[in-house]
Design a protein that fits this description.
It is built from 5 helices and 15 strands. The chain is α/β, with parallel strands linked by helices and 304 residues long. Strands 1, 2, 3, 4, 5 and 15 form a 6-stranded mixed sheet that branches. The protein has a 4-stranded parallel sheet with strand order 7-13-8-9, covered by helices on one side. The protein has a 3-stranded antiparallel sheet with strand order 10-11-12, with no helix packed on it. A hairpin with a 4-residue loop joins strand 4 and strand 5. The protein is globular.
């Protein structure tokens, strides 16, 4: 059994930012991450041409700026380096390949009991913590809509998390489903690589496509178009509720905050969430500062 003051679940930008803010306040913590690296979404599930969509001054993590010569819009590789430098600067040491399986609140002892799986040594780890921070992100699992006939589509179907470049699709006809930032950028990237690119811009997706028959996509408008591949830029869904119990005060059934911004980050029984407000890196920075300051306040009141 490991007894810790604060347990942070997730070593993406939200978890790292929270860790840094706790460090600044001399509050001990443990941070666990199910992947083998930090910021795995950026390292392993982001397309090559990705850049931050806001200027760098709106995309900094707490207590550390980008280098003075960094471009206004930070590219993927530079952001990953920034994350690595951030980890080194604040001496953050995540326990990688450690997957949280369950967490429950013990009302009598006033602690959270967490069961995690160490995937390296294939053993179970039990934690108890006074403060639990959910920083596992809203982008945990691929969200692919149910479309009749999709399972029989003979071409390649991939989620945007596995898309890297349009180079491998050159000369083909590709349908991009989803018109958010990722969908638009992927469609542009495909077009620049000589791909015959189409994009579904209506929402919901199921209302635009009626069915897929072989390699023919039938739209509700009556159009029928043949495609060689489909890219789903349809976002992600949170998996937090698969392991978090007694979190109803903070998260809804979709694993997202029940409270409106800016009061979303705090639940009951010293439960917190960072990076779930869908407000980008600026929102993550604000969450991390609020959480660390609140924990500091609670600890001070407990000792007085």
């Amino acid at each position: 059994m490991e007894n810790v003051v604060v347990l942070i679940v997730g070593a993406g930008p939200a978890g790292l930012a929270t860790a840094a803010c706790l460090t600044q306040l001399s509050i001990p913590y443990v941070i666990v991450e199910r992947e083998y690296c930090s910021a795995s979404l950026w390292r392993n599930r982001a397309y090559d041409r990705l850049k931050l969509h806001l200027a760098k001054e709106f995309c900094e993590l707490p207590h550390m700026s980008y280098p003075a010569d960094a471009p206004t819009y930070i590219p993927k590789a530079l952001f990953v380096k920034y994350v690595d430098d951030y980890i080194e600067c604040f001496n953050i040491q995540p326990k990688y390949l450690t997957s949280v399986e369950s967490s429950t609140y013990d009302g009598e002892k006033k602690v959270w009991s967490i069961v995690a799986h160490d995937m390296v040594e294939c053993k179970r780890i039990n934690f108890t913590t006074k403060f639990l921070v959910v920083a596992s992100g809203e982008n945990s699992a691929e969200n692919i809509p149910v479309i009749p006939g999709l399972q029989n589509f003979p071409g390649e179907t991939i989620h945007s998390s596995r898309y890297k470049s349009g180079k491998s699709f050159s000369g083909k006809s590709v349908l991009v489903i989803g018109s958010g930032n990722s969908g638009m950028e992927i469609a542009y990237d495909l077009a620049t690589h000589g791909v015959n690119t189409s994009i579904v811009v209506r929402s919901p997706v199921q209302g635009s496509i009626s069915e897929i028959m072989g390699n023919i996509v039938k739209f509700q408008s009556g159009d029928e178009i043949s495609f060689d591949a489909i890219v789903f830029a349809t976002g992600y869904k949170s998996t937090t509720n698969m392991w978090l119990k007694n979190g109803e005060s903070m998260l809804n059934d979709n694993g997202l905050p029940t409270k409106e911004y800016p009061n979303h980050w705090k639940g009951e029984n010293r439960l917190y969430c960072a990076g779930l407000a869908r407000r980008g890196l600026a929102g993550i920075a604000a969450d991390a500062k609020n959480i660390a300051n609140d924990i500091k306040s609670v600890i001070s009141s407990m000792s007085s």
